[in-house]
Specification:
The chain contains six helices and five strands, in the order αβαβαααβββα. α1 packs parallel to α6 and α2 packs across α6. InterPro entries: CinA-like_C (IPR036653), CinA_C (IPR008136).
């Protein structure tokens, strides 16, 4: 992940971009990957770790009705998390993660499902990735790498 974060740093600097993260299942790992790189303060404003629904509402402005209707692990909530991260920071790009790292899950929301959103000026893209029941550490690591790849794709 170090190489992806290094490339992101260079791309974001060139674009004059500032980044924020809104993380649930990754618990700050995306922010840590970015801030592990020297000079990241030039492109990283802040990270929100919103593990509970209450934190998503209080810190990012996720709507209670969205949580009730779609659940925390949904693209709708991920989108509101990413938009909220931009709204509550000086960033112009944000990535959000919310998922089920495991163990556990359900018939409808299996272990390894992670919903992502990346937002920037005038857009917010969402997607869901099924990493499968590969173990908590691997789901979190792959989700972190995927979140960085989403930022790399959009921050230019």
């Amino acid at each position: 992940m170090t190489r992806a974060a290094e490339i992101l740093l260079e791309q974001a600097k060139a674009a004059g971009a500032m980044i924020a993260t809104a993380e649930s299942c990754t618990g700050g790992m995306v922010a840590a990957a970015i801030t592990d790189i020297a000079g990241s303060s030039a492109i990283f404003d802040r990270g929100f770790v919103t593990y509970t629904n209450d934190a998503k509402v209080a810190m990012l402005g996720v709507q209670g009705g969205t949580l009730d209707r779609y659940g925390a692990v949904s693209e709708q909530v991920a989108a509101q998390m990413a938009r909220g991260a931009i709204h509550h920071s000086t960033a112009n790009f944000a990535v959000a993660t919310t998922g089920i790292a495991g163990p556990g899950g359900s018939e409808f929301k299996p272990e390894g499902r992670v919903c992502f959103a990346v937002a920037g000026p005038g857009f917010c893209h969402t997607e869901t990735v099924e990493f499968g029941a590969i173990g908590r550490a691997d789901v979190r690591a792959r989700a972190t790498a995927h979140a960085l790849s989403l930022l790399l794709r959009e921050v230019k």
